[in-house]
TrEMBL record:
PROSITE patterns: HTH_LACI_1, HTH_LACI_2
One Pfam family in the UniProt entry: Peripla_BP_3
InterPro entries xref list: HTH_LacI, LacI/GalR-like_sensor, Lambda_DNA-bd_dom_sf, Peripla_BP_I, PurR_sensor_dom
Domain annotation HTH lacI-type: ranges: 2-56
Matches recorded under SUPFAM superfamilies: lambda repressor-like DNA-binding domains, Periplasmic binding protein-like I
Keyword field contains Repressor: yes
UniProt keyword list: DNA-binding, Repressor, Transcription, Transcription regulation
Upper taxonomic lineage: Bacteria, Pseudomonadati, Pseudomonadota, Gammaproteobacteria, Enterobacterales
Name assigned to this protein: Ribose operon repressor
Organism encoding this protein: Cronobacter turicensis (strain DSM 18703 / CCUG 55852 / LMG 23827 / z3032)
Amino acid sequence: MATMKDVARLAGVSTSTVSHVINKDRFVSEAIRLRVEDAIRTLNYAPSALARSLKLNQTRTIGMLITASSNPFFSELVRGVERSCFERGYSLVLCNTDGDEQRMNRNLETLLQKRVDGLLLLCTETHQPSPAIMKRYPAIPTVMMDWSPFDGDSDVIQDNSLLGGDIATRYLIDKGYTRIACVTGPLDKTPARLRLEGYRAAMRRAGLRVAEDYEVIGDFEFAGGLRATQSLLALPEPPQAVFMGNDAMAVGAYQALYQAGLRIPQDIALVGYDDIELASYMTPPLTTIHQPKDELGELAIDVLIHRMAQPELQQQRLQLTPVLMVRGSA
């Protein structure tokens, strides 16, 4: 395999001149540039990304740790992050924890060993990244997306789930529904707990009673929404409306109501959360709380790049404002 020294020897120039031609970071005369480029083609030379990263102390690579899920929210969020990386000249290395603590920490160490310039974490609060691993790489800037698993200097970007749950429930109340249920996500996840608290706060303000069994713990997945809705339909007095903790479970609820021969919203109204792309293509289109996934990805990358440039800055906690998308399911 040809090296930069081989290119310099064939072109009759120094290795630094070859570097300037490749990186376009200093003026080189047209004649010399053409000689260097001709030598590169003749030798089929490919610059070493590893060597460049060691010299510049940066890899132009960002690592992202995420728990895989059938929930389309995550794939849409990753798409936004990757697009933002590309637009800013960075590559994204994505690792899946699959909900396993050992796998999460192994992937975390792999990303940090590969000298990523920065790290995005979007995992689960059940399994927290090893503080010991994080301490071994203190110089790696990190942004937590949606939750902060441990104390530290990491920047945090969160959805205002408390307000979002309140807005969703208040919309159902304003539409005249009084028997309103809530299917929440796993309560070991902060967004699920806050969305449930928002639901309860709106019900209390309206003076409405939450009937027994009207709060169902789901799993943020399609099948969980189906099972939770089936349990609500089996009650002696089923609800008139349901706030689903996310859109994936709302899709499952559509299936449960279809199997039961019920219509949306004539028999039961639904409001979801996340505004995944599928939501507007449901029949009827799903009313939901919009999370700006592209903007969230863009903001996460910008905050991370800002942190990489100025590591001495104080920790930032940024909160996105949820917006109700009114469609046809309520």
